[in-house]
Amino acid sequence: MTNKSTARAHTNIALIKYWGKANQELIIPTNDSLSLTLDQFYTDTTVEFDANLNGDQLVLNNQLITGKMATKTSAFLDLIRNMASIDTPAKITSINHVPTAAGLASSASAFAALAAAGSDAAGLALSRTELSRLARRGSGSATRSIFGGFAEWIAGDSDANSYAQPFQENVTMDIQMLTVVVDATEKKIGSRAGMQHALSTSPFFKTWVTESAKDLVTIKEAIKRADFATIGEIAENNALQMHAINLSAKPGFTYFNGATIQLLNIVQELRQQGIPAYATMDAGPNVKIISQSTDTETISNAIKSVFPTVTLEVAKPGPGISFLN
User: Fold this and answer.
1) Do β-strands 311-315 and 278-280 pair in parallel, antiparallel, or remain unpaired?
2) Quick one: fold of 4-172?
3) What's this model's pTM, rounded to 2 decimal places?
């Protein structure tokens, strides 16, 4: 047992979305998904097991955290402790370089980093597949953040066969995500609650699952041939379908705000002008624009003309899990 370890995990943004659990306890999704890991947003987490502690301690962004988040973190560490046959408390120190709970996949990088650091500190030599399975238990999308570039989450139907795998880690095509942060505050409806409400009440949920399976086949072929336009078209359509499911729930809900709609309109106008730009959104109002580096300035100028003070981040394909020990 090494006692202490530090790991870094990057966020990923799903191009084919995960939205809905077939098994809530094990976090097994209703459909396969595919994402792109990003270089700019990441979480650094240190786990140190210390028998002198009275219980687990969570320090996030230099603040001691208690309550629901701390309880969830301890429950996740219990999975690691059970695997390692230990009962030692731990101090978890995490720096999150992602706005938390704003639809920018902060939980993906957080639990991927926690899975890696915690298991390593406990003396477990887990494979990347095993790490992916473990990270999934904290946050579904975390299962993909173990890998860099394009990663595919195979839904499976049990704890043993639900995990992510690399699809194309060495991304050579010109693809990036321009993240437009219009609201970094915590969302009112969490992802877990939102997706299960949609699954339980939307009359179109089964159609969403069927269409996502078709989208996955199409986008994988497009990635293989570096067909940027098709990748963007499929990703945007898949995201809009996911959010349409939310609107069709009973009662309906949305993560969009007025700025989200304006940004979607800007993206459509850019395409009409011949600029290949495509939008994707997760559980939050912020928009990620799938684009190419040659168009960064044009897209940024178009956005700044409407939102002069908005925060823009350009992210390119990023790496998988790494240790900083």
Assistant:
1) unpaired
2) Ribosomal Protein S5; domain 2 (3.30.230)
3) 0.94
